[in-house]
Write a structure and sequence with these properties.
mainly alpha, 18 helices, about 0% strand
């Protein structure tokens, strides 16, 4: 047993801290990478910036499928480790590797075929060439996303968050360096941004292959082809992995529908640019609760595999406390520096007129940002318990509660009215999901049998 596994199976507070900090660093690097991408792309003009906003849901589909399977694998592997069954943990690891490769190939083919009609359908007609320049490259090389996500997830499932961090940080830093070169030096425009990401992720994943297949100093072994397929292991992965993929896709679908609503307002694609720009900043603000959620899945899964429900509860409550305090402090700072934050995306003459509206959207949204962690951590807990379908239900509720009235407000109200309605629902959704999650956990601790 490695020190990382011992830590994961030990004190929940210590395990959360040790695993969450590297994940927060890694996610911060990844989000800064996305922010830098947007800054460089905004130099191509407002149409390119709007195209990135419209492309975000499609990019998130890639992220959803790869991350969903990775989450399912991580939860299943960690439960076996917690139960002391290393053989089943390694079997599940090997099956996950095969499943990810097959899924990545099929996904790339399908998305290359449907990308253009899908972009046209969600309002990208005016910027379709910008959209397709990026989308074609992204889907052609999407295997880089799939393998990178799985390798990071397997390392986290055995408590090795530091090596997982190395993969993610290396990919982000390489992309930050390569993006301006590919866009402006090579003059590849939007396609250059996508190429930079694919190349960076491919190079960053090389160390993981070295650790698993050459150095062989990890707790788990990936035995390719042993087996190619195992019904029990596959079911264990997909029980959480498929709902997790759909859960993440629900975010993408909600953004697509929200973009379609915003396009119908008087501001049109400007409204989409404001909304997507604000959420690029929020994705950075959310990093502490996302890092806590990533750490919570293997820790609670291992505790649940060992039938230690008190440890599951302790880890969950500690994560909630840290998330609320951290998010409140960061949000206060964002409210104060909102003007400077919006300047990052409106520095060019073509986008300067959006600056005040982006600032207003950020400040209104600060009212709900501290509550986001409640929903994220609740979903992570349900995934760790193997309750993938319930995690999906919670996410769908949180993400779609906003849409009906947003559409009504868009017909009769102003853009500011939509922002305030969004804030109210983004508070209500996570609070209700947390209450439901606490009821489920309480039932488990009382020994009641719950349907996964």
């Amino acid at each position: 047993m490695t020190k990382d596994v011992e830590t994961m199976l030990g004190s929940p507070e210590k395990a959360i801290t040790k695993m969450a900090v590297p994940m927060i660093i890694a996610m911060f690097a990844t989000s800064v990478n996305g922010l830098v991408d947007a800054v460089w792309i905004s130099g191509l003009g407002p149409d390119a910036l709007a195209a990135i906003g419209l492309l975000f849901p499609l990019f998130f589909i890639v992220f959803s499928v790869s991350s969903g399977i990775s989450i399912g694998a991580s939860a299943a592997i960690a439960r076996h480790i917690g139960a002391g069954n290393k053989e089943e943990a390694e079997r599940t690891t090997s099956v996950a590797f095969t499943l990810m490769i097959v899924t990545g190939i099929v996904f790339s083919i399908v998305m290359l075929l449907v990308a253009r009609p899908l972009m046209m359908a969600i309002g990208g007609r005016d910027v379709i060439e910008y959209c397709m320049d990026y989308a074609n490259v992204m889907f052609l090389f999407s295997m880089a996303f799939f393998i990178s996500a799985l390798m990071s997830s397997i390392l986290r499932s055995e408590g090795n968050a530091k090596r997982s961090m190395i993969i993610m940080v290396a990919g982000a830093l390489l992309n930050i360096v390569l993006t301006p070169i590919f866009i402006y030096v090579f003059d590849w425009g939007m396609a250059g941004a996508a190429f930079a990401t694919a190349v960076a992720l491919t190079i960053a994943t090389i160390p993981a292959f070295y650790w698993f297949f050459v150095k062989k100093d990890t707790y788990l072994r990936i035995r390719i082809g042993k087996p190619y397929f195992d019904k029990t292991a596959s079911k264990d992965i997909f029980r959480v992995g498929l709902p997790a993929s759909f859960e993440l896709m629900s975010v993408s679908i909600a953004v697509i529908l929200m973009n379609m609503i915003l396009v119908t307002t008087a501001e049109g694609t400007d409204a989409v640019a404001i909304y997507s720009t604000g959420w690029r900043i929020f994705n950075i603000i959310m990093i502490p609760c996302l890092g806590l959620g990533a750490a919570l899945v293997p820790i609670c899964a291992a505790a649940y595999g060992g039938r230690d429900l008190q440890k599951v509860r302790s880890a969950f409550m500690y994560s909630l406390k840290i998330s609320l305090l951290t998010m409140a402090a960061i949000t206060l700072i964002l409210f104060i520096v909102a003007d400077w934050a919006s300047l990052l995306f409106s520095y060019s003459e073509e986008t300067a007129y959006l600056r005040d509206e982006i600032t207003l959207f950020i400040r209104i949204s600060c009212s709900f940002l501290p509550f986001i962690g409640l929903g994220v951590l609740s979903s992570s807990l349900l995934q760790s318990l193997g309750m993938g379908t319930r995690a999906l239900i919670s996410s769908v509720f949180r993400n779609f509660i906003i849409l009906p009235m947003a559409f009504v407000v868009s017909l009769n109200g102003t853009l500011v009215d939509i922002w305030w309605y969004t804030a109210v629902t983004e508070i209500l959704g996570p609070v209700l999901v947390l209450m439901w999650c606490m009821l489920i956990l309480s039932a488990l601790m009382k020994g009641k049998d719950t349907d996964r």
